[in-house]
Amino acid sequence: MVFNAKYGRSGNIDIEIHFIRGEKVIKRFVKSGLLISALVAPTVYAALADAPVVFKENDWRVVRSVDMMTDKVSCTGLLGEGFETQLTEDTLYIKIKGGVDSVTLRFGDKEARPMRLASQTEKNVRSVTLTGAEFQELIQSERLRVEVLTMLQQLVAKDINTKGVRQVVENIRAGCPVPAPKEVAATADARKSIEPVCSKLVVDRMRLAKLKDSQIALICKDEK
User: Which superkingdom does the taxonomy of this entry point to (predicted)?
Assistant: First the structure.
């Protein structure tokens, strides 16, 4: 595997990855805050720290940045106040000190999945990455436990609160729109007022019908 990284505008890096299997060469262009942070962490962390927060849900926040030359919007989900755990619209990245050799995942209260070897990408970016079926399982869970055997043969365990991840992903997929003043905090308050009256199934159906959380809150308002 060969990396060819070049700086793009606004501190982004286009990373061209060549996977060489026999005579096949597969090229991918990966744009990811965490992939970048694995290479130039200070630059990326500074950019994320300066980006405004446009959405909050439980322990998660979404920051929004706009390329000054192309006006392209970038949305990144972050856990807590740090930058080690990041979300895109289809991938979760968990940076691991010491790199990743193997991973064991447990979603919610289900049995832990069998240990799997780290992918080549996980080894190169020194981060656990959840994509595809693992990512779909993630957004339906409220807790993620991760056990990693590092490249230094040390065990690292992480217990991540994933409540709100689904809403964060929905916000990112919607382009992380800039909210009206005070809407970031109000959104979380609105969801809290929904829960005692309307069941999760009813609320999910209303969201599928594209109702906003403020509208759902009015429908599910407790009149007592």
Answer: Bacteria
Q: Which residues contact 153 (CB under 8 A, 6 or more apart)?
A: 101
- Measured CA to CA, the distance from residue 174 to residue 179 in angstroms comes to 12
Which of 140, 80, 86 minimizes the C-alpha distance to 109? 140
Report angle CA 124, 97, 171 to the nearest 5 degrees.
75
Does the pLDDT of residue 143 top 60, yes or no? yes
Using an 8 Å Cβ cutoff, are 127 and 94 in contact? yes
From the list 101, 86, 105, 104, the residue with the least C-alpha distance to 35 is 86
- What integer pLDDT is reported at residue 204 of this predicted model? 75
Residue 138 tokens, joined: 């993630």
Q: Strands of 53-57's sheet, edge to edge?
A: 53-57, 60-66, 73-79, 85-87, 92-95, 127-130
Is-contact 194 212, C-beta < 8 A?
no
SS3 168: helix
Element (H, E) at 68: none
Give residues with Cβ within 8 angstroms of 68, minimum separation 6: 9, 10
Task: Tell me the per-residue pLDDT of 23-47, one tens digit each, with 9 for 90 and over.
Answer: 333 333 344 444 434 333 444 556 7
Structure-token pair, residue 135: 């990512």
Average pLDDT, the chain: 78
With contact defined as beta carbons under 8 Å apart, do 36 and 167 qualify?
no
Q: Which residues, 6+ apart, have CB-to-CB distance to 63 below 8 Å?
A: 48, 51, 52, 53, 54, 75, 76, 78, 176
